[in-house]
Target: cyclic-guanylate-specific phosphodiesterase
Amino acid sequence: AKASGKRAFLRYADAMDGDIRRRANLIAALRKAVERGELSLVYQPELVLAEGRIGAVEALLRWHNPEFGDVSPSEFIPLAEESGTIISIGEWVLHEACRTLAGWHRAGVDERLKVSVNVSALQLLRSDLPDSVSSALRRCGLPASALELELTESMLMANAEVASERLHAFRRLGVSIAVDDFGTGYSSLSYLHRLPINTLKIDKAFIDGLATPDDREDTTITTTVIAMARTLGLRVVAEGVETPGQLAFLEQNACDIAQGYWISRPLTEDACLRFLLERQAQ
Ligand code: C2E
Ligand code: CA
Ligand code: CA
Ligand code: CA
Model:
């Protein structure tokens, strides 16, 4: 029993060792990912329900590395955050998203189309973030109203003071702010109400339960968030809409915007341009 316990431990230690090594190797590879051109963005359309129009696209980061293949953002973004690489990656994302949107506008896409960019906690802490944002806009010739920044509810809570300062700077620039993954962070509404926020994105976890046989809780939460947002003058986006039933529920309950596989998967720059032009022509 003793010997087999030892073997089990060694297997465990080996697996741990493998994990640690993978993390270290991924972090080293991430440092060079921008300059080696391994990063790209895909874009997921957001449907304005009352108008049947795509109002925005969310930029989502992808990483393809020759050794590791496609690495999921849920694995590499936390590593980029821990190692500080997210700062240069985040700058690249901002500029690339703005460059793409400006190109689409020139190609005939509705000028009202916005791009929404995810911002990490470490980026938010930096006092030069508002400058990076305005310089990306200026370099691409975009008005500030073309950009929305997504910050998670838990990020805003964890860094209340700094968050408030940055959000006011964004407001002064004219960039809009969305609270991402809303509903998962247990924030108090009175707190959020004091911040200059434009949009709430209801987390997919709540949308999953809509229009299913046992949907009481998720239904209540979603309708409550929509009503509350209306009172506060905020837009509401439902994330992760995967079925026509969920979409119908959201339309009936006056949700503003829907995003999810049922509307479109995230698309490459070219595919998204085709998607947008085709829909406009309809
Ligand atoms: P998020 O900001 O909550 O993004 C939504 C995620 O849900 C995306 O995953 C998207 O592909 C996925 N999704 C959208 N619709 C559906 C649906 O109908 N069903 C399902 N199952 N999934 C759906 P993705 O692209 O893997 O990104 C994961 C997370 O990585 C994002 O969550 C965000 O937190 C982070 N992320 C992605 N790009 C960036 C970035 O450029 N910067 C930062 N800081 N974080 C990013
Ligand atoms: Ca997001
Ligand atoms: Ca989200
Ligand atoms: Ca999420």
Summary: Residues 44, 60-61, 72-74, 77, 93, 118-120, 180-181, 240-242, 260-261, 266 surround C2E (ligand 1) (CB under 6 Å). The chain has a mean pLDDT of 93. The first strand starts at residue 39 and ends at 48. The first helix runs from residue 2 to 33.
